[in-house]
Every structure is written in C-alpha cells, then in structure tokens.
Amino acid sequence: MTESKLKRALFIDRDGTLIVEPPVDFQVDSLEKLEYVPRVMHNLNFIKSHLDFELVMVTNQDGLGTNSFPTPDFEAPHNKMLRTLEGEGIVFDDIVIDKTFEHENAPTRKPGIALLGKYTSGEYDLAGSFVIGDRITDVLLARNLGAKAIFIADEEQGKVKINEAGLNDVCALITPSWDRISDFLRGGSRTASVKRTTSETDIDIAIDLDGTGACDISTGLGFFDHMLCQIGKHSGMNLTVKVKGDTWVDEHHTIEDTAIAFGNALRIALGDKRGIERYGFVLPMDDCQCTVALDFGGRSWLVWDAEFHREKIGEMPTEMFLHFFKSLSDSARMNLYISARGDNEHHKIEGIFKALARAIKMAIRRDVFTYQLPSTKGVL
C-alpha cells in the first residue's frame, strides 16, 4: 500500500491581495469599492489549473455583522468578487472569515490559527504550503502554521519590515507582482550557493537569477571585481562573490577558479531549464562593438574572437580573459561566442562582460505560463 500524498494549500488574504484595500476606512463595503489587484485573475487561473495547491481564502473582516459593518454591505461586493473569479476558472476550496475586532485579540483572528484546525490535523504538508498576503500578520500566520510566507510588498520596503519583525526565516518571497508569485510557485527560487576550496583558492559564490542586480564582490583583484559587478548589474541577478586566492603567486588561480565556481552556480540555479528562453546575445560601448551569443544547451563550447594589446588592465592580465570565459563555458555547460572590435582595451573587455550579462538576462528569462523545455531533444 502506498502512502497518500499530503495536500498543499495557499492561504490567501483578501483585501490588499486579491482586491484593492481602500486607503481610508479599509472596508470594501460597496460595489463601487470593488477593484482587483493587477494580474491576480490571470495568475490565480494558472495556479488553479496547473499547480497542486488548494486555495484557501483567509481574511479578517473587523466587526462583520455589527452596525459598523453590516453583513449585506460585505456580501454584495464579496459575492460579486467570487462570481467574477469563478468566471475566470478560480474557485476557492475554502473561505475562512474572522469577524472580530482587533482589540479583542481573538485566537480566531489572523495571525491566530483557531479557525484553521482542519489544516493542522496532519493531512496537509504545511511546510510545502504558503500564506500570501500584504501584511505582517500574514507572515506571522505562516509562522504559526509552520508554512512559508509570500509577502506582497515593495521589495526594499518589505525587506525592512521583515527584518524588523525577525521573520526572515519564514518569508520565502517579497514581491508586489502576482506574475512573480506564479513564477515562484511554479518553479521555485532560482538560487544557488557554491563553495570551492583548493590549496590555491577559497571561493564562496551565491546567485539569485530573479534578483535585482545587487552585487557584493570581493576577489582581491579590483578590475576583476568591477567586471563581475557588470554581470550582476546588467543581468539583473543578485551576485555575491567572495574569494581568497594566492594572488602573491599571480592572478591565474583566482580568475580561473572563480569562473569555474560561477559557472557551476549558473548551472545549478537554472535547474531543469523549463520555460527559459535559452539563447541570448550584443552591445555597443563607445568605440567598441561587442557581441556575446550564448546557449544554455548543456554542451560547452567557446568561440573567442577578440584581441588585446595591453599586458594588463588593472591587476587583470589580458591573457586571462579567454581563460575566464573558457572555464565559465565549461562549468556552466553553455555555448559561448564572443567577438569584440574597438580601440580602447578597457572598453572592449567591459563591453564583453556587459554583453555577457545582457545575453544571460535574455537567456534565463522564464515564461511563467510555459512548462516546455526549449529543446526538441526533450532534455538539456
């Protein structure tokens, strides 16, 4: 006998998450106030149709049924919302409404879980479930359930709130975008951390392909740091690179081993590559024209068509440029074509790194509504 699979749920807030919360009285108590959060229907339809989550609406409605919030005032827009969502193929498996006031501190009110007993009975995989909402109380609800939270907020402001509340270990994603939520739920976080230690170098690399271009780079080679920052900034990935290398010998080991570790991180973060664009390419920079075409097709190859006439740029030997990209291509298992024309050596190599970043950005772009592998072979 096989064990039955535990069910997963999305516990979704209503006001501010599904529909826009009025800025003054915070009550959607008329049809005139009913407004949907952008892209919510499109993405909930995808989630309902393609993913294995039950949809559970969990909402606090202060004083519902009292003179301050009569039931008919609530039901008119609420029922209209449900009918509209149903017309788009979105039917909630459960709707949980707490009617108490905040000052009552009722255990039924979010972040309390007294009304969610059926989900804590052992039939649900709460560790694989998520609470989606726009308030810290939604993140606290996730903690109380043993689930993870998706916090609908501006990323920078949301990080501050999560840090202040000490909820970093609970919050899996901070985003204002339902497109990003669908992407995350479908494919998970595209991150990787790689540590590579040899007798010559000690390297820690962390990447997030769906980041904001934030970089924290320290290799001991200033110009190399500058080039790696170009990759993070212009690809949109978050990139952390910490290297302790034997630069007293020369720069070779630091540059080569960083390329190997970075390529491994790219390959791991891409996962099964379903839905990605796969290919990418070109960039002008002042006097230079730099072309980088790549293919995350699972096979490594490098074509290098660039000449440099200085021994070094900064502390970085120009002979190491080709070696960096060859090591990167091998470890990331990608085809890489690089061509550069121009007179200024600094501009040429910076243009190449920027073109690589833009090529990566194009190639890793994932269509949230596509499961297809970009290959006729069926594998990459």
Summarize the structure.
This protein has helices at 40-50, 71-87, 136-145, 155-165, 178-187, 222-235, 252-270, 319-332, 345-364, and strands at residues 8-12, 53-60, 94-98, 130-133, 148-152, 171-175, 191-197, 201-208, 215-218, 238-245, 279-281, 282-285, 288-295, 301-305, 312-313, 316-317, 335-341. By secondary structure, it is α/β, with parallel strands linked by helices.
Your description of this structure?
The chain is of the alpha/beta class. 33% of the residues lie in helices and 24% in strands. The chain has nine helices and 17 strands. It has helices at 40-50, 71-87, 136-145, 155-165, 178-187, 222-235, 252-270, 319-332, 345-364, and strands at 8-12, 53-60, 94-98, 130-133, 148-152, 171-175, 191-197, 201-208, 215-218, 238-245, 279-281, 282-285, 288-295, 301-305, 312-313, 316-317, 335-341. The protein has a six-stranded parallel β-sheet with strand order 3-2-1-4-5-6, sandwiched between helices. Strands 11, 12, 13, 14 and 17 form a five-stranded mixed β-sheet that branches. Helix 2 (71-87) links the parallel strand 2 and strand 3 (94-98). Helix 6 (222-235) packs parallel to helix 9 (345-364). The longest helix is centred in the C-terminal third of the chain and has 20 residues, at 345-364. The chain is elongated.
